[in-house]
Amino acid sequence: AEAAAREACDQGGNEKFWAMHDLLFENREAMARADLERYAQQLNLNMEQFRAAPDNNEHQAAIQRDQQAAQTIGAAGTPNFFVNGVNLRGAQPYEAFDQLVRAELANAQRMVQSGTPRNQVYATLMRGARTSPPPPPAQPAADARPAQPQPDPAAVYRVPVGDSPTKGPDTALVTIVEFSEFQCPFCARVGPTITQIRERFGNDVRIVFKHNPLP
Question: Which residues contact residue 77 at a Cβ distance below 8 angstroms, ignoring those fewer than 6 apart?
């Protein structure tokens, strides 16, 4: 499924990627080879190239780069979001995204007013961002419940966009990087929330998709 989405992107850019993305999430229980080829045919992809891509492992390196990026910044599990580098884990409700996006949008607007070009806001934030997760919590006493690591609300993590599929302009003031996988029910559940955010904030928000297929 991950390779199918990447091949759709290679053949038709962001438009074909997001079309394949939607088909995959709509059909999470139907991801056999024949199913994937049927979705590719629906999108009018070049079927010879589409069939050859997984056989030749053409997209394996790109998918592994995304997985490595997730591991580097401690993005365990899916879905995992970074809103201008600030971590938001899991299938959070719309209100959680809305609150964080509004805060980051206000910060980005201040940066622009101070002279940062709109198309350089995210790159500027990333220059000073952290490149590793916080240390694990201290081990609890033997009779205590295990401590669960929590996102640091003040931390900004470095998550390069790279060649990942995007939705929204490069001049967006808020970039949401989503680590996701196509069979994850929680990833599917949060999809409509991300759509709402895009509809609410329009071209002020850009979505970046990164693959993190789970074992």
Answer: 89, 90, 214
